[in-house]
Write a structure and sequence with these properties.
- With about 675 residues, the chain is of the alpha/beta class.
- It folds into three domains: about 10-145, no CATH class; about 165-275, Rossmann fold; about 290-475 and about 505-535 and about 580-600, Rossmann fold (3-Layer(aba) Sandwich).
- The protein is built from 21 helices and 23 strands.
- The strands form five sheets. Strands 10-9-8-11-12-13-18-23-22 form a nine-stranded mixed β-sheet, with helices on both faces.
- A hairpin with a 5-residue loop joins strand 22 (about 585-590) and strand 23.
- The chain is elongated, with a radius of gyration of 34 Å.
- Mean pLDDT is about 80; it is low at about 1-10, about 150-160, about 260-265 and about 640-663.
Length: about 675
């Protein structure tokens, strides 16, 4: 069994620089190398024939001799051989080399005959052809061995195997590795490469031609292509997103190949291909994290994450694990969720390299409303940083259960703040939401009250820094509309959208967690950090997109024969057509281009404490009118109708919020 040998740093650097050269420079180098090798082949051939190191007797003979390599190089150029990528020449390239050399030999022999130089034997001409073939083909193989980073030999399949014709979008290293994987499999056959890089157009890679993206519809029709396989690296995310949107209208299935660094084995396989997902289209270009911000408040610290089993909480734990904390305390009220994240993180820690820090993992089952439990978890584990992600977040559920939602989201945060101050915790970061801005629902109002709790605590001073990070929807979180649409599509529809004009902001869970950690590092106390959510997305467009990505057509008045219908159900209680991230306009840039600091109004702690006491009493008494009045007085822009469970005494009471705000 062969072993991978470590590459010498000098040779690796030389290879890297060679690969990064402009394509024109590479061609010039290749032409020069070919000319030298062809000249060498001719010199060896004539020297063997004369049994001595041959030197031309005059300049005319030298000119006739040198015309042989010149004709061969010209034949290479005219035939398009230099458009082949050397690393991925393939059988087609080698066939063309042989054909070009012997065509040039024929042409050169005519030149020799017409020049009258009868002193050049036929054996020299034939010997030149043989040696030139060996040297040129050999040089390509040597170059391929030096430059080919994958180092995988392509296995040939029997010609009788019928395979699905596919097009590979992306002719870079990832695309070539995918081509090699396809040739090792028996299911697909690549008929063309597509790439937006002009220098690759009309070139051949492993015998497959690279085409302009505009040629895609023609190629699909000509070759009856069933699938397009997208193999673009992570640094081409913006281009990939644009391409994927263009592919929506093509009658093909689209499969995605993850970036090489995301492939566990490190070697591309056909099994790594996955169906196109909505994340691929809604995701955006990643901004590299600021390493100093990531570690400023977390490296070597004991960190507690509430709601550690939830979508955001679990991703925060995964991100923190990479930074090197001393201890991570996983706090969650759900036994199943806590078990799952603790088991996952413990396994990850065991698999970490010995030289990396291995943080202690502590699981705590409990509610943030249990002050004794929270205090014990903070003190016993010497917690220095808290990320508070525990919350009820689903608007319709909290709207139907306002007391429970307010108690958990607002008063649970108050308990955590009191315990953190008493224990001298260094930093507390609240995970907030865009629904806290001028809310039209109980969930948003409860989160805005939670923000006010932290702002008031920060205004009172003390060693503990309190801050909050506000952002919109995250893709593929629990209860995500994306998961709901997937479920409805699998059931055959209809896909339900509340309103054709409703829009939302989306962000991936890993990006959100990464930005939360960096925002917390910049906190000074009482800060409201707002994440740049990118461009808004119409949910109706998202639903139609997901139907098409699943291989179906949307049924509508214009297309009554479609597969799945879109049904509009009307805005739910407390739902807005659009969300906002800012209450005021006082925003400032920070050290990170996607994180903004907002200066927003708050209530003094004594006033807020009085209002929360009134709210608590009203909640205990199920006095919904008073609950609503408290929210109205203290939450900027709050405007909603509180859905109240029916009582036996008559119809439910309601409170219609007048036009009044705190500021």
């Amino acid at each position: 069994m062969s072993e991978d040998r470590p590459q010498h740093p000098v040779s690796a650097e030389w290879r890297s620089r060679l690969l990064e050269l402009p394509r024109l420079n590479k061609r010039i180098i290749l032409v020069a190398l070919d000319f030298m090798l062809l000249s060498l082949a001719l010199w060896i051939s004539i020297s063997i024939r004369h049994n001595t190191a041959y030197v031309p007797p005059d300049w005319f003979m030298a000119l006739v001799l040198i015309s042989g390599p010149i004709i061969t190089v010209a034949t290479f150029s005219v035939s398009g051989l230099y458009r082949f990528v050397t690393r991925y020449l393939g059988y087609r390239g080698h066939t063309r080399i042989i054909g070009c050399i012997w065509l040039s030999v024929l042409i050169w022999s005519l030149v020799v005959l017409m020049s009258g130089q009868l002193g050049i034997p036929r054996s020299v001409i034939l010997g030149y052809g043989v040696l030139a073939t060996l040297l040129i083909a050999g040089s390509r193989e040597v170059a391929a061995m030096i430059l080919e980073s994958a180092g995988i030999r392509i296995a040939e399949l029997p010609a009788s195997v019928e395979r699905t014709p596919v097009i590979i979008f992306g002719a870079g290293q990832l695309g070539v590795q995918l081509l090699e994987a396809l040739r090792r499999s028996a299911s697909r056959h690549a008929v063309a490469f597509i790439d937006s890089e002009p220098s690759l157009w009309r070139q051949y890679i492993s015998g497959i031609k690279v085409h302009h993206p505009d040629k895609l519809p023609t190629l699909i029709e000509r070759h009856q292509v069933k699938e397009v396989l997208v193999a673009l690296s992570e640094d081409r995310r913006r281009e990939r997103r644009r391409i994927l949107k263009d592919l929506q209208n093509q009658p093909v299935d689209v499969m995605i190949l993850p970036a090489v660094e995301d492939i566990t084995s490190g070697r591309v396989s056909v099994t790594d291909l996955r169906p196109l997902e909505v994340n691929d289209l809604l995701g955006r270009d990643k901004v590299p994290p600021n390493a100093e911000l990531l570690t400023r408040k977390t490296l070597g610290k004991s960190i507690l994450v509430t709601g550690a089993g939830g979508s955001i909480g679990s991703e925060l734990v995964r991100q923190l694990l990479k930074i090197g904390p001393r201890r991570i305390v996983l706090f969650d009220v759900s036994e199943a969720a806590l078990y799952q994240i603790e088991d996952e993180i413990s396994e990850t820690v065991k698999a970490m390299r010995p030289e990396l820090p291995h943080p202690e993992i502590v699981g705590v089952l409990g509610s943030v409303l249990d002050a004794a439990q929270v205090r014990e978890a903070v003190v016993a584990n010497d917690v220095e940083v808290i990320y508070h992600a525990a919350a009820y977040k689903h608007v319709p559920i909290v709207e139907q259960n306002p007391v429970c939602g307010l108690r958990n989201n607002t008063f649970g945060t108050a308990v955590l703040v009191d315990c953190a101050k008493a224990a001298g915790v260094e930093l507390v970061v609240l995970i907030s939401t865009d629904k806290a801005v001028r809310p039209t629902n109980i969930m948003g109002a409860s989160k805005r009250l939670a923000e006010l709790v932290l702002q008031a605590a920060a205004a009172n001073g003390g060693p503990t820094i309190f801050t909050m990070v506000r952002f919109g929807n995250v893709l593929d979180s629990s209860g995500s509309v994306v998961k709901k649409f997937h479920r409805q599509i699998r059931a055959g529809g209809p896909v339900t959208v509340t309103h054709p004009d409703i829009i939302r902001y989306f962000m991936s869970i890993p990006e959100a967690a990464e930005l939360v950690i960096q925002a917390g590092a910049m906190a000074q106390g009482g800060d409201v950090f707002v994440l740049d959510m990118g461009e808004p997305v119409r949910i109706d467009d998202l639903a139609r997109l997901m139907v098409r990505l699943s291989g179906f057509e949307v049924r509508s008045a214009d297309n009554p024969e479609g597969d799945i219908a879109i049904a509009y159900t009307g805005l739910r209680s407390g739902e807005k057509l659009y969300e906002e991230l800012l209450i005021g306009a006082n925003t400032k840039a920070t050290e990170h281009p996607r994180i903004w600091r907002s200066d927003e109004p708050f209530l003094p702690s004594d006033e807020l404490a009085r209002e929360l006491e009134i709210l608590k009493s009203a909640m205990n008494a199920r006095d919904f009118d008073t609950m609503h009045a408290v929210l109205l007085r203290n939450v900027e822009g709050y405007s909603a109708r509180l859905a109240i469970p029916p009582s036996e005494e008559g119809p439910p009471a309601t409170w219609t919020a007048p036009s009044r705000t705190l500021h």
